[in-house]
Structures are given as structure tokens and as C-alpha cells.
Specification:
Elements: H1 4-17, H2 25-34, H3 56-65, H4 77-90, H5 93-105, E1 110-113, E2 129-133, E3 136-143, E4 154-160, E5 171-177, E6 183-188, E7 197-208, E8 212-213, H6 219-235, H7 246-255, H8 262-289, H9 297-320, H10 345-352, H11 362-373
Parallel strand pairs: 1-4
Antiparallel strand pairs: 2-3, 3-7, 4-5, 5-8, 6-7
Helix pairs in contact: 1-3, 2-5, 4-5, 4-6, 6-9, 7-9, 8-9, 9-10, 9-11
Length: 393
Amino acid sequence: MTDAEELRRRTAELLAAHPPATTDRLDFLRARFDAGLAWVHYPEGLGGLGVPRALQAVVDAELEAAGAPDNDPRRIGIGLGMAAPTILRYGTDEQKSRFLRPLWTGEEVWCQLFSEPGAGSDLAALGTRAVRDGDTWVVNGQKVWTSSAHLARWAILIARTDPDVPKHAGITYFICDMSDPGVEVRPLRQITGEAEFNEVFLTDVRIPDARRLGEVGDGWRVAQTTLMNERVSIGGMRLPREGGMIGPVAKTWRERPELRTHDLHQRLLGLWVESEVSRLTAERLRQQLVAGQPGYEGSGMKLAFARLNQEISGLEVELRGEEGLLYDEWTMRRPELVDFTGRDAGYRYLRAKGNSIEGGTSEVLLNIVAERVLGLPAEPRTDKDVAWKDLAR
């Protein structure tokens, strides 16, 4: 049985064989994966050792103390937080072997082709079609709000493979090569001025059946694994005290006493406490993950994340007064990651508006929490047993 001391020994062996100061960053990350120290709870041979998730902190602490490079997790968050757990659960042995290592090392960036112009909150109404042609699927349609599509080599994709059954039943899950002919990525410029998101057009894109995840028509169930992990990764990220959006506001409050008012003080105290409660709740959620797959509690955490970010960023703009109305950079660019704390108050205020949409709208997540966490009666649905092709559009 591998315990903390054994993990420290294995980490020491990795560091001795591949000293961070003299080893190429990518070579080190590959060696770490092969040693089973990438995500220790994954199976042996797939970057892990099959030990409890909680022991990952032992490895991370040893590597950080030695100055070892990480895999830049913010840049590859979709791969780490969404694609990887789905591939691990539903992928074939060949798919796991092919995709997980370059995903974890960051050699291959991933994106998510789920939402569509007519299927965002009601994702199951998606209309992108995949038609089988021998051992391949021919895909046509449009996806939208796709983070990192301009950087991605691979995408997790859901498409309709049977229009003659109810909408949830006729969906299949695929892995799409973003470099294939027929894949076109166009930037979507946001209120921040940059194009962090994209829309993706798929025209006669051919996907081998070997890159299907799960059974034909079972894509909605497979997608639930992705979505639950997505909400945990958004709302349950690990933060230090005063990490995230509350940090810059608290710093400004301490350093700029001339900006303080009694009303702002009361609001800041309330939001500071809520942020700390949310941080500790997220820590408890991560500990619960040690026992198995994420539950619907991640939806509640994502709800809190969106509301708090918007309220905190609004308070920061008010606290700074005229300075809060300034904005540092309107130049159109296509960033590799979202940096909430590295930009100014104006950026945080504008960017936080998207938090209640991305990763599931707050309205949809409220329904999920009500029905699947609190056990309240489900909303009436008139389309549950209607074939997708017969739905009003």
C-alpha cells in the first residue's frame, strides 16, 4: 500500500533522476507522469498510482519545495477538469493511453464543443448532427462560447445522432480533432474587448468511430460526467484565504483609507465572510471527491462563485470611485487564460458578468440544486417524450 512516506520517496527519486534546474520542463513533466505522480489517484500507467486523491498534496508540496515546474493548470483547465475525468471513465484503453499523457503535460490543449446558438441553457436541444458513414461520423453544425478553441488541438463534442427519439436520448459523445478539415474557429469579441471565447463551425468533419466516448445515443449520460466536473473545477478551485476576487478589494481597503465609508465597510465585511465560507466549503467538496465522483453539490458552488464574483467586483468599482471606471486595455486579443487578479478593477467587473452564464447558467443550476440536491418537485416538462425532430424551433 502506497502511503505518504512512499510517495515522498518516489518523488525524491524523480527529482534525483530529473533535477528541475537542469531538466527541460516538458521532459520533467513527462517523467513525472510516467512515475505516477501526475494525478496519484488515477490508475497506474495513466499518470497515477491508484492511491487516494488526498495524497496528491504530499507530492505537490515536495515538488514545489524543489522548484519543479508545474503543468500550467490554468492554461489547460478544460483538459484537466473536464476531458480527463470523462476519458478516464468512458474511454477505451487505447483512448486513455493516447490522450491522457499529452493532456496532462499541456502538449495538447482541449476545448469543449457543447453549447450552440439555439442550445445553451437547454443543452439537450442541440442540433449539430453526426451521421454515420461506415467507420466514421460526418459532423455538421455550429458551436458557440468555446473557450480556448483558438489554441486547442482536441475537443470534447456532443452531437445528435438520432433525431427520431427524445432530445436527451439521441446524443453521442465524440473526441474531435480541431486540426481536421471542416473545423473553422472564429473569435467572439466580449465586453472586455478581447476574444477569450470562440464560435466553431463544423462542415463535413469526419470523426472516426474510434474517437467516440461511450455508446451511441448515450452521450447525454457521458456529458453529465463532464458537466459535473466542470462545475466543481469552476466553483471548487483551491484558494488561500483572501484568494480570488476578494483579495484585491481587501488590499485596496487596507492601503487606501481615504476611500473608506461605513456603508462600504459593512458590505466588504459581509462579502469577506461569504468568500471565506465559500472557500472552506470548496475545500470540503474536494475532500468529498476523494470518495468518488463529484455530485451535484458542485452546481451550488458554481452558483455561489458567480454571485460572489459579481458582487465583489461591483463593490471594488464603487470603492475606487472614479478610478474604478478606468479600463486598462481595449485592444482586441485572444488570450490563453483568464486572469482575474492580474488585471484592473474595470476588467474584473466586466468579466465577472459572464460567470453567471459559463459552466451552466445560474437559472439552470438553481433548478439542479432544487431538484437533485434539495429533492423538490421537478419543473413541468412538455417535451420529455417528444422526438427531437418534432420539437418546436
